[in-house]
Design a protein that fits this description.
The chain is an alpha+beta fold and 164 residues long. 22% of the residues lie in helices and 49% in strands. The protein has a single domain, classed as Immunoglobulin-like (Sandwich). The strands form two sheets. A four-stranded antiparallel beta sheet has the order 4-3-6-7, covered by helices on one side. The radius of gyration is 23 Å and the shape is elongated.
Length: 164
Amino acid sequence: MITRRLTHYLLTLTFCLGLGGCASWFSTDEPDPEVHLVKVEVVRAKLMEQKFVLHFRIDNRRDSELTVRGLEYRIHLADILLAEGEHEHWITVGPKASRFYKVPIRTNLWPKVRDLVKQLKSPEQAIPYRLEGEMETGLFIAHYVHLTRNGVIIPADLIPEQPR
């Protein structure tokens, strides 16, 4: 009985140590991809529900293909959380290439409308935004790329000119 337990323990230990060695086979020193929010498309805007499509550009800086499994995101405008969620959609980005990744979102900005109106009072004034999240990559073993992007938007640039 003791011999059986010892054998089981040694086999388990050997198996765990072997897996640790295998994990190093898949680790890489290649650079993480760059992710940019390039466009926010308004699909529908009603009082209690707004639908948007976030257009991300993924730049693969590696010499090999990049498999993207999904994206978890949080978008802030000034200190207001506009949207958060996750989108699971697999795409492959070629080596040293870029590809667009569209994320449909649905939100309700009604509880935040007072704060948004304050931000939009002067359309020429820049408003800071922040994108945070994680992109899940990898074909067999998941690798998480942390995203943090800061910038500003000028509301006047987003308002189309009215014909006179």
